[in-house]
Design a protein that fits this description.
307 residues, alpha+beta, Pseudouridine synthase, 3 domains, two-stranded antiparallel sheet
């Protein structure tokens, strides 16, 4: 790849992290191992780039994974030899972590794809380009090859992926649409949570439009213009409209019947990383969401919803 004028002066590790959708630690490891060449020579990881510099990067095959392939049913919306799009159910964790060693989307993908998944995400996250929370339902794209992973990651880094979410939030809005532009970072008071922060926060932008009003609640469509951890949940809570069912960012009295935040990734659009074709996928509202809307429409008592 050739360094464009706008990236002249950038550190090589930062540039490659953004361009290839890799963490800086992964890029620095590749630099340390001599897998990155700058104008044909291995550079130091602090090297600053100039316009026209030529970079090549080699990503070694993934280490053998100890993850277990599990025959877990998947709702496959689309699949080809490069990628697949999955409609994840509420309650499924995307990849193994402490407390969730198996039964995850990754375990199911390893079985479905017979191990044919991109290795860029690391041995615990094969094929995973982006995530949605355990209790968020909806669409995810998964990379089956490293080329597809790099191409999709570049689109996520450029914020060119189309992502629209359905949500039910507390309260009513005076306007029909709006925008939340507020940086997000780790909460200073609770390190397990994210928060809107002015210092060391990452830029985050969410737009919303109203679909329907209910007594004490509003049904919204939201679009992510960036992709920060818990972005929609944090942004809506920050403006006084937390998501229904959200036990982390919502009120203490949680709507338990929802089993987590009422949030669904309903639209996903991107350029196919290999053939360049624009692809858009839509997921209908799952039953938990549709049933909640029906219940909201049949009651005028907010207290009845908070059981």
């Amino acid at each position: 790849m050739e360094v464009p004028a706008q990236d002249a002066g950038a550190r090589i590790d930062r540039y490659l992290s953004n361009a290839c959708g890799l963490s800086r630690s992964v890029v620095q490891g590749l630099l340390d191992d001599g897998h990155v060449l700058l104008n044909g020579q291995p550079p130091p990881k602090s090297r600053k780039l100039a316009e026209g510099d030529r970079l090549s990067i080699y990503i070694p095959p993934p280490k053998p994974s100890e993850l277990v392939a599990q025959d877990i049913p998947l709702d496959i919306v689309y699949e080809d030899k490069h990628l697949l799009v999955v409609d994840k159910p509420k309650g499924m964790v995307v990849h193994p972590a402490a407390g969730n060693p198996d039964g995850t989307l990754v375990n199911a993908l390893l079985y479905h794809c017979a191990g044919s998944l991109s290795g860029i995400g690391g041995e615990l996250r094969p094929g995973i380009v982006h995530r949605i929370d355990k209790d968020t339902s909806g669409l995810l794209v998964v990379a089956k090859t490293d080329d597809a992973h790099a191409g999709l990651s570049a689109q996520f880094a450029a914020h060119s992926i189309e992502r629209e979410y359905d949500a039910v939030v507390y309260g009513r809005f005076n306007a029909d649409e709006g925008r939340v532009d507020a940086p997000i970072g780790r909460s200073r008071t609770d390190r397990k949570k994210m928060a809107v922060v002015e210092v060391n926060g990452k830029s985050a932008v969410t737009t919303w439009r109203k679909v329907a009003d209910y007594q004490g609640f509003t049904y919204l469509k939201l679009q992510l213009l960036t992709g920060r951890t818990h972005q929609i949940r944090v942004h809506m809570a920050s403006i006084g409209h937390p998501l229904a069912g959200d036990a982390v960012y919502g009120p203490k009295k949680v709507i338990k019947r929802l089993g987590g935040q009422c949030l669904h990734a309903g639209v996903l659009g991107f350029m196919h990383p290999v053939n360049g074709e624009y692809m858009q996928f839509k997921s209908p509202l799952p039953s938990y969401f549709a049933n909640f809307l029906a219940r909201l429409g049949n009651t005028g008592n907010q207290a009845e919803m908070e059981d």
